[in-house]
Write the structure tokens for this entry.
Amino acid sequence: MSVAPDVGGTEDARPWVERARPEYVTLVGRAHLLDELFGIVNVPSALWIDEAGNIVRPPEPAFLGDHPSSTGTGC
């Protein structure tokens, strides 16, 4: 799952989500609630949450190509 923090709502986030063509659910966070709860200050960022709801990796920059395993096909 991903969250697009955009005060402009779904219509502002739609072109970015469509371009990424994710194969998973994408939510739009207009109120930036998740940003505040998890301490996300940069976009794109990633954090890992396990099946039990525990944060197993804190927020970190998630730019395409930052990791050697990146394929260049999506975030």
